[in-house]
Amino acid sequence: MSITQLVSQYLLGALLSLVVITNPLSKIPMFISLTTHDSRTQRARVALDACLYAGGIMVVSLVGGNVVLEMFGISYGALRVAGGIVVALVGYRMLYHSQDTTSQATREGHQVAFFPLAMPGISGPGTIAVVIGFSTEIAEISNWNFKLAALGLTLLAIVGATLCVWLALRLSSRISEQLGPSAMDVLTRLMGFLLICVGVQFIGSGVRTFYTSL
């Protein structure tokens, strides 16, 4: 495995997968509805806190994912297949515009940064599945230098995806006014299709792992 392959798979690939699964633009309506009565400063704080929480959840999933798998005796192949199915189902709902229950979350005071924005809004089951999927691939790298490099690149991808979500939330009012509902709908469906592709890729990788371990 070369450095170019590492960057392509664990930085660019992970960043694309995480941006698609988190779908920053789709979080704008929920963020606006949850912070309608907040001041500009309060909304900025909620956006920052939500992204910090979400980033923390993804980092913990990346670092501790393999430990959890070992505790429950779950193979890497099984995790990838299951994660791929979850990711593909999320993409299917986005593609066919199924109703997202997180958008119906009710506001309870100002404590919305963690729930429902960070969890399950930004770092939902699909996001966690993607991150753990990459952690299983990193665990299978035999060369420790490449393994640490892959881990660092994936962490950078998490930071990049979190920044994309933060920018979308900070510019939420302006973006929603400029795009309009039709453009938001098209982008959501497009990202849903890309997400299905990511899920199928994980399923294929998991099946290949099962096959080679026989």
From TrEMBL:
InterPro entries: Multi_antbiot-R_MarC. It is found in: Cell inner membrane; Cell membrane. Pfam families: MarC. Keywords: Cell inner membrane, Cell membrane, Membrane, Transmembrane, Transmembrane helix. GO terms for cellular component: plasma membrane. It is a multi-pass membrane protein. It comes from the Bacteria. The chain crosses the membrane at residues 6-25, 46-68, 74-92, 113-136, 148-169, 190-211. NCBIfam families: NAAT family transporter (TIGR00427), PRK10995.1 (NF008228). Belongs to the UPF0056 (MarC) family. PANTHER family: UPF0056 INNER MEMBRANE PROTEIN MARC, UPF0056 MEMBRANE PROTEIN YHCE. This is UPF0056 membrane protein. It comes from Microvirgula aerodenitrificans.
